[in-house]
Amino acid sequence: MFGNKKTYDFIFSIGGTCSCSRVLRRTGLQVFSYPFDWLYGSDFVGRVDILTSGFENFINLEDLGYARKRIHPGPADIYHNKINNITFNHDFPLDIPIEKSYPEVKAKYDKRINRLFEQIKKSEKILIAYIEPPRSQNKLQDNNMLNNMLIESYKKLSERFPDKQIDLIYTTNCEEKKINDICTENISNNITKIILNYKKLKKNKKLRTNWKILSKIFRRYKLKLTTKQKLLNIIQVKILRRYRGDSRR
After folding, report:
1. Total-model pTM
2. Are strands 199-201 and 207-209 parallel, antiparallel or unpaired?
């Protein structure tokens, strides 16, 4: 459908929710967790700014405010960062004072941030992926504005990582399109925008992303893997298919 696959040394998600990382894992493009994988909030520009700043003020204790609690799936206290608008949905144990739980959560994100930059450092060709949350639909009449935003954000990324070949794929939801009607627009040699309808309602009316449709997009890409990573990837994909869960290492 898409011709020869593009191959990258490293592929990672910057959001906008868990959907992007899950799709990358299901298509064999991601093995480990990185800082943006299981978070909600902010927008594409905000997340690019966080990345290019080196995750400055990403998870300072004094910036976190209690939002609410969740029971399913996965009990947790939810905290919101008032500085960067990031919401931590899965990380803080339910009914545990944040002063007690914070050190372990901070250490986990420090590990993921270090892992991300180490992987960027040793990679030459990198793909950065972003899938819009289905609710934040960009209307087609705002197409030029979205394109300009992508171009400006890409400039920030290329300036932050000048010695890397970086490509960017941005996926936006459009409910006017029919399922399987995938529109690909190359904004530049390094920026690809995908427009399609990947919004899906379950029987209980909860909003979900359509994994099957999104997977078609990412199967055009290929990740170079070490033998160890290949084994981990095979195990992970089997787990995802069997339990429809995720791995948050």
Report:
1. 0.86
2. antiparallel
